[in-house]
Amino acid sequence: MPDQPVGVERLMAAIEAVLPAAATVLADPGDALFGAADLHLGEDSHFLASSFWASLGFALPAAVGAWGACPEHPPVVLLGDGALLMCANELATLARYAIPALVVVLDNGGYGTERPILDGPFNDLQPVAHRELALAMGFSAAERVKNEEELWSCLGRWRSDGVTGPTLISVAIPAGEMSAALRRLSTALAQKLASPPPQA
């Protein structure tokens, strides 16, 4: 449905549909990584993530290095709004060197991985106008999308326009929406926290 809010799994399906045959996908810890784990990539594509250390804020600066090492593979960066606040200055680096990156921000208004484990106001983030921030830092294009129709339209323009610089798409994700993989993990961790510690 055109005005359907964007869920994580539908977002990843849309990204997969427009990925170039050779791309470098970089996923930040959280649902950017858990959701991207099901992406089908081309044989010549790369996938980079800090899954072992779970370093929040890894993917955006890593895109600069990935493009420098392999400029024929355009970076596709997937990160949450929390991760973006840890590395937003690298938007300026992408713009400075006209790196043809697609930056997709999964904006659920906070730390979506932590909410189902232990919720509270400490998981909420100050809202940031991602589109305006990217344009202020020199991005070629930036959009805010709130439904599937807007998402497909933005991704279609990015795929067909041959943009020479970076593009940002900030996607409004409804609170509580997450991939099946993250839901399984967070449910198990929440149950572990709720269990009484073993008696000595």
Give a description of the structure.
The chain has 200 residues and is α/β, with parallel strands linked by helices. It has one domain: Thiamin diphosphate (ThDP)-binding fold, Pyr/PP domains (Rossmann fold). Helix content is 39%, strand content 16%. The chain contains eight helices and six strands. The chain has helices at residues 8-18, 31-36, 59-69, 81-87, 90-96, 130-136, 148-161, 180-194; strands at residues 24-27, 46-49, 75-80, 102-107, 141-145, 167-172. A six-stranded parallel beta sheet has the order 2-1-3-4-6-5, with helices on both faces. Strand 5 (141-145), helix 7 (148-161) and strand 6 (167-172) form a beta-alpha-beta unit. It is globular and about 60 Å long.
According to CATH, the homologous superfamily is: Thiamin diphosphate (ThDP)-binding fold, Pyr/PP domains
CATH architecture: 3-Layer(aba) Sandwich
| First-to-last CA distance | 56 Å
Q: SSE order in H/E notation? A: HEHEHEHHEHEHEH
Percent range for β-strand residues: 15-25%
Major sheet characteristics = 6 strands, parallel
Number of strands: 6
- Percent in helix: 25-40%
Tally of domains: 1
Structural class: alpha/beta
Overall morphology: globular
